[in-house]
Design brief:
The protein is an alpha/beta fold and about 425 residues long. It has helices at about 5-10, 35-45, 60-70, 85-90, 110-120, 135-140, 165-175, 185-190, 235-240, 250, 255-270, 275-290, 290-310, 330-335, 350-360, 390-395, 410-425, and strands at about 75-80, 100-105, 125-130, 145-150, 180, 200-205, 215-220, 315-320, 340-345, 365, 375-380, 400-405. The chain folds into two domains: about 5-285, Type I PLP-dependent aspartate aminotransferase-like (Major domain) (Aspartate Aminotransferase, domain 2, 3-Layer(aba) Sandwich), CATH 3.40.640.10; about 290-425, Aspartate Aminotransferase, domain 1. Helices cover about 40% and strands about 15% of the residues. α1 (about 5-10) packs antiparallel against α3 (about 60-70), α4 (about 85-90) crosses α5 and α15 (about 350-360) crosses α17 (about 410-425). The radius of gyration is 22 Å and the shape is globular. It starts with a helix and ends with a helix. Bound molecules: pyridoxal-5'-phosphate. Pyridoxal-5'-phosphate binds next to α4 and α5.
């Protein structure tokens, strides 16, 4: 019988044996000892499973990756040093020079930069489409060299909701996987694999950690995408890897293991964006209470959004839990138990009044962060999205008067009182 997500948040990934530590042990070791060179050599050849160097694998990070894999309902998973590394690896693992990505335009600023600029320099091009595009517009974005589709379930900071089924259908019709960043809903509120996503990514820095203490990322493979059926598109998975004596990932590790094994054994080996065992330990502490914290973040988010919506100094509010929000119906479908604690809104007084409002807040603080136990807020146009042109800002759903507030776990009325007094001064 499958256990509830609550029990899995607390216990999945680690089952201690008799006399073992109850808490996940931090294996603070870069390296591992072997009796013979031959025994270690078999690990280098991916012939045996085991640990030899923590850039490739470490027992602590493996335990935490296994928990996240379980929560998302995947076949394999890995941790990375940050959410940026997770999204980079997730795309680059199947989309190299000459490849093309179809991406929702409503995504995190860092991921937009990654796709529009850095991957572009590496010879990977991206066509951005509005998350609200029609099926025909989406279809028209594909090219013969398209290797994947990318989107965020709940976009940071625009809070648009991705119609996962629409994007999955288009990706699959073109023989490529859908990669979705599930950072904001977390698997407590949405499990994208159940809706057709093939690969899921996370910035674990956000709700999963939840205490603002450890940067991290994760990639989860559903095991549902048949690489061999589209072998010509994905030679990296379906043709011999000369750096491992000619193994073919999709043959040796199967549909459920090929993608993550390749990402670890090639990309982590060569780029080295590892999550430390210490950070994985902190992440696991966050995961143990994720199912308790996320509903409370959502409760505060909804209350704040409802308060802002009726306030005369606020010209618009985006919170997909509000009935008036354009994403409400999609949110109800994909996230019936709630969305997240982040609310985006615009002050009627424009950019300056947004800045004055933020400076007057006492409970909420100004930070480049979201999804923390402490309420924080940010002015995207002058911070995370400042490299964007006005046109790009509007495409990404960000206006100059927009404030992004991440409601923490404080008392609901304290948050509302704080916002009310700051609006008086704005
Ligand atoms: C924060 C964030 C990222 C980047 O993650 P880091 O851990 O900061 O590198 C990627 N995607 C989304 C949706 C995010 O919110």
């Amino acid at each position: 019988m499958t256990q509830s997500i609550d029990t899995r948040c607390v216990q999945a990934g680690y089952t201690p044996g008799n006399g073992d530590p109850r808490q996940v042990p931090i294996i603070q070791s870069t390296t591992f000892k072997y009796d013979t060179s031959d025994a270690m050599g078999r690990l280098f050849d991916l012939e045996d499973e085991g640990y030899f160097y923590s850039r490739l694998q470490n027992p602590t990070t493996d335990i935490v990756a296994a928990k996240i894999c379980n929560l998302e309902g995947g076949s394999a998973a890995m941790l990375t040093g940050s959410g940026q590394a997770a999204n980079f690896f997730a795309v680059f693992n199947i989309c190299e020079t000459g490849g093309h990505v179809v991406a929702s335009s409503s995504i995190y600023g860092g991921t937009f930069n990654l796709l529009a600029h850095t991957l572009e320099k590496m010879g990977v091009s991206t066509t951005f489409v509005s998350p609200d595009c029609t099926a025909e517009e989406l279809d028209a974005a594909f090219q013969t060299n398209t290797k994947c589709v990318f989107g965020e379930i709940l976009a940071n900071p625009a809070l648009t909701v991705l119609d996962i089924e629409k994007f999955a259908a288009a990706a699959h019709a073109h023989g490529v996987p859908l990669i979705v960043d599930n950072t904001f809903p977390t698997p407590v509120n949405c499990r994208p694999i159940e809706w057709g996503a093939d690969i899921v990514t996370h910035s674990t820095t956000k709700y999963m950690d939840g205490h603002g203490c450890a940067l991290g990322g994760a990639i989860i493979d559903s095991g549902n995408f048949d690489w061999m059926a589209h072998a010509d598109k994905f030679p990296g998975l379906t043709q011999p890897d000369e750096s491992y004596h000619g193994i073919v990932y999709a043959e040796k590790f199967g549909q459920g293991g090929a993608y993550i094994t390749k990402a670890v054994s090639q990309l982590m080996r060569d780029f080295g964006a590892v999550q430390s065992p210490q950070n994985a330990f902190y992440l696991n502490l966050g995961l143990e209470s994720l199912h308790v914290r996320v509903p409370r973040h959502c409760q505060n988010g909804l209350a704040v959004a409802e308060f802002l919506e009726q306030h005369p100094k606020i010209s618009s509010v985006r919170y997909p839990g509000l009935k008036s929000d354009p994403g409400y119906e999609l949110a109800k479908k994909y996230m019936p138990n709630g969305t997240c604690g982040v609310v985006s809104f615009e002050l009627a007084g424009g950019r300056q009044s947004a800045e004055a409002f933020m400076a007057a807040l006492k409970v909420a603080s100004i930070e480049t962060h979201v999804a923390d136990a402490r309420t924080c807020c940010l002015h995207p146009a002058s911070t995370t999205h400042r490299q964007m042109t006005d046109e790009e800002l509007i495409e990404a759903g960000v206006s100059p008067a927009m404030v992004r507030m991440s409601c923490g776990l404080e008392g609901t009325q304290d948050l509302i009182d704080d916002i009310a007094q700051a609006l008086e001064q704005a």
